[in-house]
Write a structure and sequence with these properties.
The protein is an alpha+beta fold. The protein has a single domain, classed as Nuclear Transport Factor 2, Chain: A. Helix content is 29%, strand content 47%. The two termini are 28 Å apart. The relative contact order is 0.18.
Length: 146
């Protein structure tokens, strides 16, 4: 790995940390700064794809309307850096206290992030969140742990 790739990987890891901080603070403006304007998101919530920063922020707004307090945890983050693109994958878990006062430990999901370099910043150009599928029932499996 070159010295520049090490610097870039560090910056990308900082971006992931900022996602966690933004979620915990329920700070849409902080989250918005992390995404490319033309981001394409394959999130767990319908439809199949969410295109553009406004659609991505609507997803986060929906999350924040359900939670009074929200937490996010990232495990096993792996990043691969190229010249002006990079990708990473990890496990993530959204948890917290719902608006009705119910505490939830959430569920673990698989997350993939694709980054595009813009100046010195690395912005998320694509993300995907998923859960494994039980083929027999056709339902998502949400009780797995890393």
């Amino acid at each position: 790995m070159t010295a520049q790739h090490e610097v870039d990987e560090g910056r990308i890891r900082q971006q992931i940390d900022k996602i966690v901080e933004g979620i915990r603070a329920k700070d849409l403006k902080a989250l918005e700064r992390l995404y490319a304007e033309d981001v394409v998101s394959f999130d767990v919530e319908p439809p199949l794809q969410h295109v553009g920063i406004a659609a991505k922020m609507k997803n986060w707004t929906n999350v924040f309307t359900f939670f009074e307090e929200v937490d996010y945890e990232v495990r096993d983050l792996t990043i691969t850096v190229g010249g002006d693109v990079a990708f990473g994958h990890c496990f993530g878990r959204l948890s917290g206290t719902l608006k009705n006062g119910t505490a939830t430990s959430g569920m673990w999901v698989r997350a993939t992030f694709c980054f595009r370099k813009a100046g010195d910043d690395w912005l998320i150009a694509h993300d995907q969140v998923s859960v494994p599928l039980d083929m027999a029932s056709g339902k998502g499996v949400v009780d797995l742990h890393p």
